[in-house]
């Protein structure tokens, strides 16, 4: 399994578990007998809970999971698995980051003409559509959490900004790779030497984008329950 999957695959399964728990809780509440609540709090809570439905979040997660399986597990749509199959298992530069210009160009050379062509196509096709599915899911997740927990304006904006920053960094990495592949064998030392740092930054932002709404949800819900 590629090393970068260690960063976010467990988090994806955790997200699925948490979202599944939210769905089960919602279904159980619907089956319970209706109880009267104080009028002042009932309307506010009801409006908050209906502001963002769980179904768009679950649908986005299902689309993301399907895209991940199609491109990373099966050699479909010119994804990661397709490139690995065409290059006898060579790792992409974001699967094993390279932090020097010499290493970047040495690895690009190993891909060969056919591998570099497929890799270049990957940077503006599958590697744009797949992150888009994850971006939509992360934004909906952040919005869902923000609608149900008392968060400050800065925290709420930060939850929404993190996925956008991650996606922007991912697209920057794609642009750098496209430029390096399009100009090969000509060398661009500045882009090649900075590629590894951009890749690391991308995965750090991805981890924060996934963990921040979960931590807010767990910690703030626990605090709220303890103060009741």
Describe this structure in words.
With about 230 residues, the protein is mainly α. Helices cover about 80% and strands about 0% of the residues. It has helices spanning about 5-30, 40-50, 55-75, 80-85, 100-125, 125-150, 155-185, 190-225. α5 crosses α8 (about 190-225), α6 (about 125-150) runs antiparallel to α7 and α7 (about 155-185) packs antiparallel against α8.
Care to give the gist of this entry?
By secondary structure, this protein is mostly helical. It contains eight helices and no strands.
Oligomer: single chain
List how many beta strands DSSP finds: 0
Shape: elongated
Roughly what percent helix? over 70%
Distance between the termini: 45 Å
Radius of gyration: 21 Å
Strand content: under 5%
Low-confidence stretches: 36-51, 222-228
Q: What's the story with the biggest beta sheet?
A: none
- The secondary-structure element order is HHHHHHHH
């Amino acid at each position: 399994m590629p090393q970068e999957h260690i960063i976010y695959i467990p988090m994806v399964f955790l997200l699925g578990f948490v979202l599944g728990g939210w769905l089960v809780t919602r279904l159980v509440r619907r089956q319970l007998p209706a109880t009267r609540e104080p009028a002042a709090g009932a309307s506010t809570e009801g409006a908050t809970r209906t502001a963002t439905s769980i179904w768009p979040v679950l649908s986005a997660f299902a689309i993301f999971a399907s895209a991940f399986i199609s491109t990373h597990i099966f050699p479909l749509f010119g994804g990661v698995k397709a490139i690995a199959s065409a290059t006898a298992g060579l790792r992409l530069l974001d699967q094993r980051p390279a932090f020097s210009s010499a290493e970047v160009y040495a690895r690009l050379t190993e891909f060969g003409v056919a591998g570099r062509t497929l890799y270049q196509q990957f940077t503006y096709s599958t590697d744009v559509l797949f992150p888009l599915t994850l971006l939509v899911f992360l934004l909906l997740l952040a919005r869902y959490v923000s609608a149900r927990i008392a968060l400050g304006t800065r925290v709420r904006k930060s939850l929404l900004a993190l996925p956008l920053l991650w996606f922007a960094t991912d697209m920057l990495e794609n642009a750098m790779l496209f430029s390096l592949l399009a100009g090969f064998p000509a060398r661009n030392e500045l882009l090649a030497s900075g590629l590894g740092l951009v890749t690391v930054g991308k995965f750090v932002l991805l981890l924060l984008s996934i963990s921040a709404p979960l931590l807010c949800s767990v910690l703030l819900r626990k605090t709220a329950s303890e103060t009741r």
